[in-house]
């Protein structure tokens, strides 16, 4: 009999935002799987659950470099799927944890596609987690959307012209991973009179995290963290 595979979103950073359902599943699961950018590294998701719970899991670190190169990642997803499949074949359950939500820019989806080919009869359950935009909006006491407004979500690793077009087209925009383009992004917002209509959060929920509506105060920083998100509201933050 095969074990069951759980995909668990652990939220944006604050261990207190881990859901009760996630905790219940993690308490009864022996194998904890998560991706790491470096073979000897750790993951933010593992850091979160370790602060929320005191359990000695069998840790399964899955090496997946920070890259957009599918030719590089494809064999990593395959080998990770094979490693997890071997655990499930023993009848043991496994939980794959991911930052935020399992259905929201998550590596788990790529793994599921591979594992389903290896174990087509496998039972899989996804447990949603709180997303960064929801956590940031709550912390800033602002709505993401109201009435009939639109919300556009864009990873800022796309071409800068795509990012600018997204800001131009929608009333509300969430930009993920803005660390490397913040200064160029701020210049565009200021040029269009929107620098007071945005909030930036970085590593929200961690000890070194912050959230601010004063974007200009961030210009002196050489580079913002990879886990930095911006919410832009053209109709104002208030």
Task: Give an overview in words.
- It is elongated, with a radius of gyration of 19 Å.
- The protein has helices at 20-28, 44-52, 70-89, 108-118, 132-140, 160-169, 182-191, and strands at residues 5-9, 31-36, 58-63, 94-98, 124-127, 151-155, 172-176, 198-202, 210-212, 228-233.
- It is built from 7 helices and 10 strands.
- It starts with a strand and ends in a 5-residue tail after the last strand.
- The mean pLDDT is 93.
- The protein has 2 domains: 5-127, Cobalt-precorrin-4 Transmethylase, domain 1 (3-Layer(aba) Sandwich), CATH 3.40.1010; 132-233, 2-Layer Sandwich (Methyltransferase, Cobalt-precorrin-4 Transmethylase, Domain 2), CATH 3.30.950.
- Helix 3 packs across helix 4.
- The chain is α/β, with parallel strands linked by helices and 238 residues long.
Q: What's the SSE pattern? A: EHEHEHEHEHEHEHEEE
User: Helix amount, in percent?
Assistant: 25-40%
Shape: elongated
Largest sheet: 5 strands, parallel
Instruction: Give me the count of strands.
Output: 10
The CATH topology assignment of the largest domain is: Cobalt-precorrin-4 Transmethylase, domain 1
Main-sheet strand order equals: 3-2-4-1-5
Low-pLDDT stretches: none
Sequence-ordered SSE layout with sheet pairings:
Elements (H helix, E strand, L loop, with lengths): L4 E5 L10 H9 L2 E6 L7 H9 L5 E6 L6 H20 L4 E5 L9 H11 L5 E4 L4 H9 L10 E5 L4 H10 L2 E5 L5 H10 L6 E5 L7 E3 L15 E6 L5
Parallel strand pairs: 1-4, 1-5, 2-3, 2-4, 6-7
Antiparallel strand pairs: 7-10, 8-9, 8-10
Helix pairs in contact: 3-4
């Amino acid at each position: 009999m095969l074990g069951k595979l759980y995909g668990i979103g652990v939220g944006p950073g604050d261990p207190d935002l881990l859901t009760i359902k996630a905790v219940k599943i993690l308490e009864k699961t022996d194998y904890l799987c998560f991706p790491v950018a470096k073979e000897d590294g750790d993951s933010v998701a593992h850091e979160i659950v370790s602060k929320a719970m005191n359990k000695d899991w069998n840790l399964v670190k899955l090496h997946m470099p920070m890259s957009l190169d599918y030719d590089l990642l494809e064999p990593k997803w395959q080998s990770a799927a094979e490693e997890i499949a071997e655990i499930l074949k023993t009848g043991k359950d496994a939980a794959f944890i991911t930052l935020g939500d399992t259905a929201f820019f998550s590596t788990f989806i790529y793994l599921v596609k591979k594992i389903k080919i290896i174990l087509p009869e496998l039972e899989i359950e996804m447990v949603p987690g709180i997303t960064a935009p929801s956590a940031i909006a709550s912390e800033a006491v602002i709505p993401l959307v109201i009435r009939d407004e639109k919300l556009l979500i864009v990873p800022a690793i796309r071409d800068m012209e795509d990012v600018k077009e997204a800001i131009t087209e929608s009333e509300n925009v969430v930009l993920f991973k803005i660390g490397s383009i913040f200064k160029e992004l701020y210049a565009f917002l200021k040029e269009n009179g929107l620098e007071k209509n945005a909030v930036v959060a970085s590593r929200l929920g961690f000890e070194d995290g912050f959230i601010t509506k004063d974007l200009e105060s961030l210009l002196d920083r050489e580079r913002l963290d990879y886990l930095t998100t911006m919410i832009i509201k053209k109709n104002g933050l208030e």
